[in-house]
Design a protein that fits this description.
alpha+beta; Glutaredoxin; seven-stranded mixed beta sheet; two-stranded antiparallel ribbon; 4 helices; 9 strands
C-alpha cells in the first residue's frame, strides 16, 4: 500500500541543503504548501529542464504561499555542482536522500543503465504538502518525463485555494 495517501500525513523529510542549511519538512511554515520535488540527479537532462524552469518560477510560487525544496540522492559535491552548472540560484537543493526515505515517499528506484548515471537514484516525484503535513497533490513517475506542467500548477493553486478544493483520490463511502 502506498504511504503517500491524499489528505494524510506525508513521511518525514530531513535533508541537508547546498550552502549549509538543513531542511526539515516538519518545521516548514509555508502559507499554503511546501512543494517537494525529487529529481534523478545531475546526470538527467530532463531534470535540468524541469528544475531550471522551476528556478525561474520560484518567486511566483512564493507569491502564492508555496515554499520549494528540490532533492536527490546525489551527495553534497554533486548537488553543489548541479546548483552551479544549472544556475539554480533561487532553489533550495537538498542532497543525500536515502533509498529508504525515497521508498517512504513511494518513489521508484533505478539502477544505472549507462555511463554517467548515478549507480542508484530515485525517479521523479512532485508533491504539494499542506502546512500541517497532509498530502494535497502527488505526481510520481518511473521515467524522466511525465512530470507536471509547472506553469499550469502555478495557475491551479490559487483556483484550488479559492474554492477550498479538497485533496482528491480518496473514495468516500456511499
Amino acid at each position: 500500500m502506498a504511504r503517500t495517501q491524499p489528505d494524510q500525513q506525508v513521511p518525514d523529510l530531513k535533508l541537508q541543503i547546498v550552502g549549509g542549511e538543513t531542511f526539515d519538512l516538519a518545521v516548514e511554515t509555508p502559507e499554503n504548501f511546501v512543494m517537494v520535488v525529487f529529481y534523478r540527479g545531475l546526470h538527467c537532462p530532463m531534470c535540468k529542464k524541469f528544475l531550471t524552469t522551476l528556478n525561474t518560477l520560484t518567486k511566483d510560487y512564493a507569491d502564492i504561499g508555496v515554499s520549494i525544496i528540490a532533492a536527490s540522492m546525489n551527495d553534497e559535491t554533486i548537488a553543489t555542482q548541479t546548483r552551479e552548472d544549472w544556475s539554480l540560484d533561487q532553489l533550495r537543493i537538498g542532497y543525500g536522500l536515502t533509498e529508504e526515505v525515497a521508498q517512504d515517499w513511494d518513489l521508484y528506484i533505478s539502477s544505472s543503465i549507462r555511463e554517467g548515471e548515478a549507480d542508484v537514484f530515485s525517479e521523479p516525484g512532485f508533491f504539494l504538502v499542506r502546512p500541517d503535513g497532509r498530502l494535497f497533490l502527488a505526481n510520481i513517475t518511473n521515467m524522466p518525463w511525465g512530470r507536471p506542467d509547472l506553469h499550469e500548477i502555478l495557475q491551479k493553486i490559487p483556483f484550488a485555494l479559492e474554492r477550498n478544493y479538497p485533496a482528491r483520490g480518496m473514495k468516500t463511502p456511499a
